[in-house]
Write a structure and sequence with these properties.
- The protein starts with a strand and ends with a helix.
- The chain contains 15 helices and 18 strands.
- It is an alpha/beta fold.
- The radius of gyration is 21 Å and the shape is globular.
- Helix 2 runs parallel beside helix 3 and helix 2 crosses helix 15.
- Strands 1, 2, 3, 4, 5, 15, 16, 17 and 18 form a nine-stranded mixed beta sheet that branches. Strands 6, 7, 8, 9 and 10 form a five-stranded parallel beta sheet that branches. A four-stranded parallel beta sheet has the order 11-12-13-14.
- It has two domains: about 110 residues, Roll (Urease, subunit C, domain 1), CATH 2.30.40.10; about 290 residues, Alpha-Beta Barrel (TIM Barrel), CATH 3.20.20.140.
Length: about 450
């Protein structure tokens, strides 16, 4: 009899491995923080202290949310139905200028509760007070790639512009080798960061071999501004500064020329698609099918709750698939498997975590979720992949395990006190109202 710490049994396993293997009526064993065995039938040769019965449901890799501003959960519904620049300059930036570490910690915990309960096991965050984001993720037991957003103006966290890179470097050193937390260098955008700051950010990322993350070509206004200022598209501007490469994660990428896509592909740039946020802010529709056809790796992100307004990647998958079908008048583009991979194995690859998470394979870290399929909207089930993209909801996730540790069982959070967190969030909202005088 072989020993495991956790066995998940009696479910259909979607591994999302290179062969897209599916194991009907399968089991998965976890030993320590990793997957030790995957097989069909009952685990008769294995024993474990904890056994999770999937009840005939689906067992799959935890979802990877490639772009969030987690603490913006406290801004959800604050300023809806506004153009991006008005939304940023009149509401978000003024509110953020008054934030503190406690605000970010509370908002991130609230976001983490939502993410765990909707199947996300890994997220990539760009925000202020990034150390608090990392601490919250560590408390919740959620895998993450985080960084401090860098601007050409003072920050309420690190102060003067020149201190931003110093703060980021201290984060890299502090969280190095942590089992859950990884750090990236994160200049905000081309319209809020000078070429000098962008170049210095890139040098820091290369020095420590960590990702460089930036918003790119999100709006036509941004593209026009960069063209007017530098005589180039945002992608060509990045290329001229030497920033393109496999270490670069470009968020949004809504307005790209064909030459931009080819240049990005030639340099191995990674892209994050945020369809619901782009729709809500009327930013446009990113040319994802064209990017995929050129060989770019594209992950899926929700963006922040102030521009989405949720962190449910199941909803995001459904939107991503349907948006591009109607945009291209082609029902075959963005098929269910392709979109599911964007939210799992391809998302992990975008974040540089493909050897750690994103698929269920022996030796990888045990980031696993279970979907309860005994629901009217999931019955009958002819195709599991199709159901996950077009019918499933975040609320169908019954169990979540991250790095071998259960964080939710039967919809009950194990690492977070959701009642306390929501109470703190309501108290914080009073402060936000006073900041914006409404």
């Amino acid at each position: 009899m072989q020993q495991a710490d956790i066995i998940i049994k009696n479910g259909t396993i979607l591994t999302l491995d290179s062969d897209n293997s599916i194991v009907e009526n399968g089991f998965l064993c976890i030993r320590g923080d990793s997957i030790s065995k995957i097989g069909p039938g009952n685990p008769t040769l294995f024993k474990a202290e904890k056994i999770i019965d999937a009840g005939g449901g689906l067992i799959l890799p935890g979802l990877v949310n490639c772009h969030t501003h987690a603490a913006m959960s406290l801004f959800r519904g604050l300023a809806d139905d506004l153009p991006l620049m008005e939304w940023l300059n009149n509401y978000i930036f003024p509110a953020e200028s008054k934030m503190d570490a406690e605000f970010v910690y509370t908002g991130t915990l609230l976001a983490l509760a939502e993410m765990i309960m909707s199947g996300t096991t890994t997220f990539c965050d760009m925000y202020l007070f990034a150390d608090q984001v990392a601490k919250a993720a560590r408390k919740a037991g959620v895998r993450c790639l985080v960084g401090e957003v860098l601007y050409d103006f003072p920050s309420p966290n690190y102060g003067p512009v020149e201190k931003g890179l110093e703060y980021t470097e201290s984060l890299i050193q502090k969280w190095r080798n942590d089992p859950l937390v990884s750090i990236a260098v994160e200049p905000h955008s081309l319209f809020t960061c000078s070429p000098k700051l962008l170049t210095a950010s890139n040098e820091l990322a290369l020095k420590y071999n960590v990702p460089l993350i930036i918003h790119v070509a999100e709006t036509l206004t941004e593209v026009d501004e960069i063209k007017e200022k530098y005589g180039k598209t945002p992608v060509k501007h990045l290329d001229s500064l030497g920033l393109l490469g496999p270490h670069l994660i470009a968020d949004h990428c809504v307005h790209l020329e064909d030459a931009d896509i080819k240049t990005m592909a030639a340099n191995g740039v990674n892209v994050v698609h945020n369809p619901e946020s782009n729709m809500k802010l009327a930013s446009g529709i990113a040319p994802v099918p064209q990017m995929l056809s050129q060989g770019l790796t594209v992950g899926l992100g929700t963006d922040g709750c102030a521009s989405n307004n949720n962190l449910d990647l199941f909803s995001e998958m459904d939107t991503a698939a349907k948006l591009h079908k109607v945009n291209t008048f082609d029902p075959t583009v963005m098929d269910a498997l392709s979109v599911l991979k964007m939210a799992t194995v391809h998302g992990a690859r975008v974040l540089g975590l493909q050897d750690v998470t994103g698929s269920l394979e022996v030796g990888k870290k045990a980031d696993v979720i279970v979907i309860d399929t005994h629901k009217p909207h999931l019955t009958p089930m002819y195709n599991a992949t199709s159901h996950l993209v077009y019918a499933a909801r975040g609320s169908d996730v019954s169990h979540s395990i991250i790095n071998g540790q259960p964080v939710m069982e039967d919809r009950k959070l194990l690492t977070l006190d959701i009642t306390e967190i929501m109470a703190r969030a309501r108290e914080t909202s009073i402060r936000v109202r006073s900041w914006l005088s409404f």
